[in-house]
Design brief:
The chain is mainly α and 252 residues long. The protein has one domain. The chain is built from 11 helices and no strands. Helix 3 crosses helix 8 and helix 4 runs parallel beside helix 7. The protein is globular and about 60 Å long. The termini are far apart. The relative contact order is 0.17.
Length: 252
């Protein structure tokens, strides 16, 4: 669909800002499933602080890998084996998620990590696998490397913001984590088809529509279990607030 728009007779040449806007919009659109996958992976760490650190450091490494992928994209796209590896990795993540036992405490049944440094490479490699799909789309839109890098940079920033939102929403919605991994499966299957039979790859609009439907299901039911960690943080903060209030009253 994008190729048809860009090659249409009405396209008399897109200026760099417009192309950049398109790239950023695509990054944001194609990053929803990536963001929820990274947020779900980070849930394998015990505390929210560790989860945030894992996302920050993991995406920093992922950014370097993305830039490397962009700079070598014209070479990478010549080898279907890269997409096959990316597809295999994403499908393995989905398989491991659905075959693992659910954690009774927080309903998470993705990978578990005993340290921050175990989560960082998983986050980075997962983003790289997703990037095989988004970067291929980006270089089809623009052959100007700096534009693709700029779009990718803004995309990583947006990805971190979205992953932060999903970290909170995963605690609030019952089916959201399952929905996230289903969309990861969609991307994995898309990469697999592209590697084996490129002419059968579904159009972008169909992928977006399918992902949107799955997300609608993911947000369909709120969890009745309270977020115990958030409650604990609030309870710890309340004595300090009361102390501040007493100090203000005493000063009056």
């Amino acid at each position: 669909m994008l190729d048809q728009i860009l090659n249409s007779p009405f396209n008399v040449g897109l200026e760099a800002p417009v192309v950049l806007l398109i790239l950023v919009a695509l990054e944001a659109l194609l990053s929803a499933d990536n963001a929820i996958a990274l947020a779900a992976i980070s849930q394998g760490l015990e505390t929210k602080q560790l989860q945030r650190h894992a996302l920050n450091l993991g995406l920093a490494v992922a950014y370097v890998l993305r830039i490397t992928l962009i700079l070598t994209a014209t070479w990478v796209v010549q080898f279907w084996q890269f997409e096959l590896l990316g597809a295999a990795y994403l499908l393995w993540l989905v398989f491991e998620y659905f075959r693992s036992d659910q954690d009774e405490e927080d309903h998470h049944h993705g990978p578990k990590f005993t340290s921050l440094w175990q989560a960082i490479p998983i986050i980075a490699v997962t983003d790289l696998a997703f990037s095989l799909d988004s970067v291929t789309t980006a270089i089809a839109i623009s052959d100007q490397t700096w534009l693709v890098i700029a779009g990718g940079t803004i995309g990583v920033i947006a990805l971190r913001f979205m992953a932060g939102l999903f970290m909170r929403w995963l605690k609030e919605y019952v089916y959201l984590e399952d929905a996230g991994y289903i969309t990861v499966g969609f991307v994995g299957l898309r990469l697999l088809v592209r590697a084996i039979k490129p002419e059968l790859v579904p159009p972008e609009w169909l992928m977006v529509a399918a992902i949107a439907l799955v997300f609608m299901w993911g947000f369909s039911e709120k969890s009745k279990t309270p977020d115990l960690e958030s409650i604990a943080v609030e309870n710890e903060a309340q004595p300090a607030l009361r102390t501040d209030q007493r100090a203000k009253e005493a000063s009056r």
